[in-house]
Amino acid sequence: xxxxxxxFTTDFAADFPxxxxxxxxxxxxxxxxxxxxxxxxxxxxxxxxxxxxxxRAPVRAIAGRPAxxxxxxxxxxxxxxxxxxxxxxxxxxxxxxxGVALVLTPDGLGARKIDALDAALEGVMLDLVTxxxxxxxxGGAQAAALVAALVEQRGHAPQDVSVLFGLDLVRDALLxxxxxxxxxxxxxLKTLNGLGFSSPVLLLDGRVAHEAGASEAQELAGVLAAAxxxxxxxxxxxxxxxxxxxxxxxxxxxDGDQFATIAKLRAARLLWAALRREFxxxxxxLHIHAETSRRMLTLDDSQTNIVRSTxxxxxxxxxxxxxxxxxxxSFARGAADGDARRIARNVQSIVLEETNAYRVADxxxxxxxxxxxxxxxAEKAWGLFxxxxxxxxxxxxxxxxxxxxxxxxxxxxxGKLVATRRMPLVGVSEFPKADAAGAPTATSDRSGxxxxxxxxADFAALIEAFGKGESLGVDAGxxxxxxxxxxxxxxxxxxxxxxxxxxxxRPAAFLALVGPIARHAARAGFIxxxxxxxxxxxxxxxxxxxxxxxxxxxxxxxxxxxxxxGADPDYQESGAAIAKAxxxxxxxxxxxxxxxxxxxxxxxxxxxxxxxxxDDAIDIxxxxxxxxxxxxxxxxxxxx
Length: 640
Prior knowledge:
Number of domains: 2
Helix content: 40-55%
CATH class of the largest domain: Alpha Beta
Radius of gyration: 28 Å
Strand order of the largest sheet: 6-5-4-3-11-10-9-8
CATH architecture of the largest domain: Alpha-Beta Barrel
Strand content: 5-15%
CATH topology of the largest domain: TIM Barrel
Number of helices: 23
Number of strands: 16
């Protein structure tokens, strides 16, 4: 029996509003009285506007990764043991990765000599993968020479090997407060070009500023300023703007803000083309390397990072990245195990194979909201770039502290959004998992250090020295300014939670439930979720009980803090009596919400703080911890 296909056909479009005005009325009805504009209109942290509902824009594909060209999905090589690193990279390359991120730092891959690097990359065909070199500050030229020596030892034609060598004067200054000798960078660029390498020698890195709290526009402006700084600085060593810019790639971070990340990569190509025009140069391909954001990763409930990283990987694929590094979900905890690496690898495989985004030249072209955000970011970034240039350029802006201050202001504004939970962190500030806390064991591989010491040699001699077994080190640096301080967004919450959960007696906050469950559940859930983010236990009092029964339950709980949770009408009826009874029992009394009526009476009865959505959660948790620790110290003193 064959069913008539038309019987199963539904005209879904017939039920959809046919014009914007009708759609807005339907959307407002679905929001049950909430205004629509704040839902569909927003601003990035630095004030760049994003309007989600915009008409279709004229299609203007931004030239980037060619249509049909897959981006390189990188495998991160950061295991210290050579045999383990080799086994891991071969597994990654066999199961979906198409490139390698060589982390040649003291706490990364333990390959300081050519034989060790050769062993770590045994079975890896360097002429078939994309290699991105990650180094410690002031170690760029040394690491580039080591990799070039390996290419030479293996007999590859340099022009057949795709290596992002990773040199960046400004990156070193951002991380270490010192910049490498421009002569060594110029020598490296000339030598590698002379040997026949055609892939980028300079990797202008926006990720450091991102990790320090920079906005999308600041990240882009910093990359532009770094490009001009290299043009300006290397000109004294015989390199013209075309040679420098043609030898440059850029690195950007990708976070869970999908549309901002897409727009950032698209804006980067517009800005790069504009920069080349300023130097009188024709447009040319730009390699964009993207890495999932480190600052968005959480230590607690780290599996939630899988979702963040998937969104970020999709965004940079749509945005046009040429190579992508998805960090393992457990990256904030330190070296990742095989399972975390497998998931990071599979995130890219799924994005590549299931979305087919790489098959389209510019998937976001014509999308009104993204096109507008692309242009807004480009305009904002260009203005910031001009401000840096007015300070004398990237290194001068770092020496004066101008750029650090600018990024610091943005980081502070973002920190306020995180603290007030207007920028929620799932698993940390929102819906914290009871057993997800962990010790902060990870250290960033973007710090200074190294086992070399201020060596200075011409680049060709370095390649020869590494070929003969010389050990990897760092060059001498020139002080520039204070380095940027990097941090993850979740750290303030995690710091409080870990301290409380490591305490000999876990702090608790008693929930005084007012009225039946239908009326107290919403605010009790809000307080329970908030305090759990700080590692507090939250024992419930009896529901719909008398003030004295609630006070007696508080005494039995052993808590120092009591939070009254209920509806405003119940607060007017019995809130003051409950607060008075709790205070008489020794409690510091808080109340959930900001009741419009009766506030004076509640304060007179003993309510010390009103806690509501939009308040600074870090401040609340810090005060709650102080209350609990003060009482605990007093109790210990009395027992002694």
